[in-house]
Each structure stands twice: as structure tokens, then as C-alpha cells.
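Lab meeting tomorrow. Please check the following:
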Amino acid sequence: MSSTIRRARRTTAITVSLAAGSALVSTGTAGADTAKTGSPAVTAPIRQGLYQSAYSERNDALWMTSSVGMPPATVTDSRLLKVDPDTLKVEKAYTPPVTDAATGAVEAVYGVTVDDEHNTVWTTNTRDNSVAVYSQRTGKRLATLPNVNHAREIVVDERRDTVWASSFADGSLVAFDSGTFKEKKRVTVPGTGPTGITVNERTGSVYAADYHGAQIIEVSRGSESPRLIPAGEGPLSIALSKNGRTAYTADQTSGTVTVVDLREGAVTRSVATGGGTKSVAVDHRSGHVLAVNRTTATVTVVDPHKGAVVKSVATGANPNHVQVADGHAYVVDKSGSGPAGEDLLTRVRLRR
């Protein structure tokens, strides 16, 4: 999203110096003052079942989703968490509503984004084929919006009061009014499986990674039909360059970051990063791209202009999501390596 730096989701787990040529420094503890200790890495156990996070500049809070249990098991344990980005302590934990009293199933939360303009948090409720809206001020659920089949990821276009969600099961991108919560647009591309999603707030164009088709789905304002652009194999996540002219996909199948020229509609580079590349984010200060690799348990820094890996650093097992904000990368893992089996949040300090 083009206001990523303002709002950029401060996600997860191991803080590491990722400057070119820098060495891996031992990870600090959650309470450590990195300015005083010199350690660029801070890790904290949060909770089991972590998925994603989103940073609110308005409230200086990190919102995280947690859901415990894999299909076909019923999810009865899910939380929307408000975390202090400085101490990495959980300040509030909100439980989604029960959807089945007999089983105790809840409206489990997975993807997450923040709308600071309306002071809300939006989540994808993948198991329930819906998205939900929560108040940042109170944590109260304000609405649940149905008919987003296998809702995966979600992004806010604050400039146009619009929230977009990817509907993986039916190949749709669904737009909602961020003020009224009403559906305002639906674009379906048969045979596709949209996963990660981002928006260029300057132009209003929306981009989704198509896991099934090794391509990007572009929906432009005023266009009557979506444009399909080649990408890597099995793309799960997508991010844009600062000027919005280049897209980067995290390709789970091929273990690569693919660089795509959006004007030309062509792949310009493919950079091997590690097994099971899961999520991608951009450091707009340096222009570097960060990717987490699930199978190899690393976060990799890529120079997209050179098409080269700057550095790969070990993370907790099963890293799931990465975002960049205010000179830090945040990686959420599903390692279960906390003292009580929690997954970890790692804050990574980046140098220019």
C-alpha cells in the first residue's frame, strides 16, 4: 500500500541488522533498550497461532491476529491483540464472537490491516468466509461482512475510503466502503486464487498475487476488466516500490522474489531467497526488499536493482509474515518456541 510507511504493518518476530555487509547480532530481550545496548534485535513471545500484524501510527500500536488450530479442527481460540511496539508487550486481547455455541467455534481472525482515518482494524475471517471491522479505541467488533470466500488478506486505501480483500476460493477481489462497511465493488477472475494484496494509493490501482496462475491481478480505476501480469511460481504475497511502478512477489513454490515492471507487464528479475518464500515487504528508504522463507527459516534482504541477495539471516522456525515501518522490519513466526509454547514477535532494526 502506498501509505505503508505511515501505517506500515510492524510485523513480527526477530530484530536483526540487515544492512549490506552487516553481521548478525545476538538477539536482545523484549525489554531491552536497543539505543543503550547497541543490539539491533529484539524478540518477544506473544501467543500461539500468530498470523499477521498491522501498525497504527495514530495509536502507536501493533495489531496482531492469532488463531489456534488447523483444518479440519474447530477454532475455539482466537484473539485480536494490541501490542506495544516499543516493549513488545500485549496490552489488550480481544476475543472474536462465538459462531457456534455447540462447538464453541469463534469467528477466527487471520489477515489484518489498520484504517487510522476511521480508527478501525479490519481482519479476514478465513474459516467463516467473511471480513470483520473492530474499533481501535475499544476493541469492539463493529461489523462482520460476509461473502468473501476463504478471505485471505486485506488492505486499506485511506485516500478513497476503501478496503480491499482477497477472496481466494472464488477468484475475487472485494471492495468495501471503510465508513459505511457496505460492499462497493467486486472483481472476479475465474480460475484464479488471489492471496496477498496491496494498493497504490496514488493511482487507486489494486494488485493481488494469484497463487494458482503465477501472475498478478491488476484492477485499475476506470478499467472495465482486470489486467493479468506474469509473476513467479506460487506467489503468496505482493508489495510495491515507492514509486508504484514495480511489484515484488514472494513465490512459495519457487522460493524466489520476482521483480515485475508494471508498466511493461513483464518480469525483469527473479532472485532465489530460500525455501517456501511466504511474505514480502519493501524498505522504502533503501529500496531493498525483505522476504521471509518458511522452509529455510530465514529473512532475506534483496537488492532488486542488482537482482542480488544482500543478506539472509536466521529467524525463528516457520516465519509467516514481514512488514517494514519506521526503519524496522517485523517478522511474525509460528515457531512455538516461547517458554510456554508461544509464537514469537521479532523487531528488526534496518540501517540505510
